[in-house]
Amino acid sequence: MPEQVDEAIAAKIVRAIDRTLKQIQENPDHPMRARFDTAIHEFIHRLNSSPEVIARAEALKLEILNAEMVRGFSRGLWDDLRAALIRIAEAPDARAIDTVAHGVTTVATSVKDDPELLAKLEDWMIEAVSELIERYRGEVAALIEDTVGGWDPQMTSRRIELAVGADLQYVRINGTLVGGLAGLLIYSIMQLF
Predict the structure, then answer these.
(1) CA distance 180 to 89
(2) How far apart are CA 58 and CA 9, in angstroms?
(3) What total of structural domains would you count in the chain?
(4) Residue 184: domain span
(5) Tens of pLDDT along 162-182?
(6) What is the pTM of this model?
(7) 164 and 188, same domain (yes or no)
């Protein structure tokens, strides 16, 4: 086929696609939107209920996550972020710190204002912490045991007393009063009989 005819056909196809997309964009009730919504809902249903579709989606996810390009991208992204944070920490630039603070504030605000996102984030954190605890349970227990075992009993008692001293005094006073009243009651009963 001559090149000019080929280009004319390609241009006509592109114009038709462009016209169709504009019609879909301008018309919320366009039949193509309804078909697309139906197809998406059916796919979501199959993704939740069909073992074959679930297995294919998991395989695709693993293939994407294990792709060298994705790993290289995430490694590069992490390296760039770490380098930027180190630069900010070593030579604090007010603009850079403001940018980081603004970014953190924006993320925190959007999470706080979106209950669904907050619930997902909370579920993810609980799942991640639970998995870490499950995986490193022995190491965490050994660390706690070693840390507590190395504490000086006198110093630990003193710190606990300082931290909750007022509450301990309240418990002691209540214990003394209740014990005294109980003793007085028992003595009075014994004197009556």
Answers:
(1) 61
(2) 40
(3) 2
(4) 153-193
(5) 777 667 777 777 788 888 888
(6) 0.33
(7) yes
